[in-house]
Design goal:
The chain contains eight helices and seven strands. It is an alpha/beta fold and about 250 residues long. The chain has one domain: NAD(P)-binding Rossmann-like Domain (Rossmann fold, 3-Layer(aba) Sandwich), CATH 3.40.50. The longest helix is centred in the middle third of the chain and has 28 residues. The radius of gyration is 17 Å and the shape is globular. The model has no long low-confidence stretch (mean pLDDT about 95).
């Protein structure tokens, strides 16, 4: 029987694959057989090494998703480099922390542009390529615990990640009949650059750990299995779902 989790011969675009969650996802997809198109501002040397160790190929597309200007080029370079696109992982994200009374329009827009606007328009561009080529594919959006909860001092991040969950469901409604699976992963508290401030705050770090049944911050490698599942044939009838990978945070 064929392995339903086998991604050999497939091409995955992963945004923000240079470090953290994106790196963990890219390497896991490569271990399952996929070739990786890594989108980011700097050459993902460590990710490339991990992909190569798994026997995969990595193509770096230099782009910043602070605007949607590079969206069409990302699709073009991915197809030119590897011949097709099968999977899109919208992982790139940013965060700004400040009391809501003091939060600026610039900080609001900076987060919403990367975390939500670019997610929608890159998904649109990839789905248009699939439609033109009469094929389907998999889109995985990276949501957050703050897709479900309010958070503290991160108003634009909370708004953007709530929006990611919303457009995941909307696009699933529109595109499921076209052979496109659109789903989301909601990571809990992982060791990444975005959580460094929380981990360095002794009080907040302790309050977070006290709520996680697993008792530790997640490692990026612990997110990869969820991405492989949602990218694979095993998830062919999964549409509009959000899969928390949170050490039990939401169950508490």
């Amino acid at each position: 029987m064929a392995n339903p989790f086998d991604l050999r011969g497939r091409v995955a675009i992963v945004t923000g694959a240079n470090t953290g969650l994106g790196q963990g996802i890219a390497v896991a997809l490569a271990q399952a057989g996929a070739d990786i198109v890594a989108v980011g501002r700097s050459m993902p040397a460590d990710t490339e090494a991990g992909v190569a160790a798994a026997g995969g190929r990595l193509l770096w597309v230099e782009a910043s998703l602070e605007t949607i200007e590079p969206v069409a080029r990302i699709v073009e370079e991915a197809v030119a480099g590897f011949g097709a696109i099968d999977i899109l992982v919208n992982n790139a994200g940013t965060i700004r922390r400040q009391d809501s009374l003091d939060f600026t329009e610039a900080d609001w827009d900076a987060v919403m542009d990367v975390n939500l606007k670019s997610v929608f328009f890159l998904s649109q561009a990839v789905a248009r390529w699939w439609a033109l080529n009469a094929r389907g594919g998999k889109i995985i959006n990276i949501a957050s615990m703050l897709s479900f909860q309010g958070g503290i001092r991160v108003p634009s991040y909370t708004a953007s990640k709530s929006g990611v969950l919303g457009i995941t469901r909307l696009l699933a409604n529109e595109w499921a009949s076209k052979g496109v699976n659109v789903n989301a992963i909601a990571p809990g508290y992982f060791i990444t650059n975005n959580t460094e401030a929380l981990r360095n705050d002794e009080v907040r770090n302790r309050s977070i750990l006290d709520r996680i049944p697993a008792g530790h911050w997640g490692k990026p490698s612990e997110l990869g299995g969820a991405a492989v599942f949602l990218s694979s044939d095993a998830a062919s009838y999964v549409h509009g779902a959000v899969l928390p990978v949170d050490g039990g945070w939401l169950a508490r």
